[in-house]
Amino acid sequence: MENVRIYEIPSCKMVSSQVGMFGDGKLEKFDEWFSTLPRPMFPKDFLWYDEKKGGFVWYYIYSQDMTIPDEFEIIDFPGGLYAVATDIDGQDNSKVLNAIKEFIKEKECFEEDSTRAYLGNIITPPSANTAMGYNQMDYYIPIKIV
Description:
By secondary structure, the chain is of the alpha+beta class.
């Protein structure tokens, strides 16, 4: 069984939290905002770390019927292919990232796309988090076909 999946996120518009750190209020405000939206079958939010600015950025797939708070902006997301695997949120993620990288290497038809950031999102419904005591997280490594 393969534990790494290949997803393609289309180019689209996303609502951006802009750069922040957990505890400074910016990311918490973003979480509060998108948590008021109807919960879809698959998460529409993606968290990533902006190395250049030294903080996290949270995205949520934009739709025209949304009311966006003034402190957030709408950005153009380039989309692309991602190799994705799941692990437990809040633990050392090096094992899952290494497994994804090994998958990419073994397939010989992909390579990591260093022009795009790694993404992550929590896939666990709140009721399952309560039952299990933890969240599952999907880790996305950007790839391209060689």
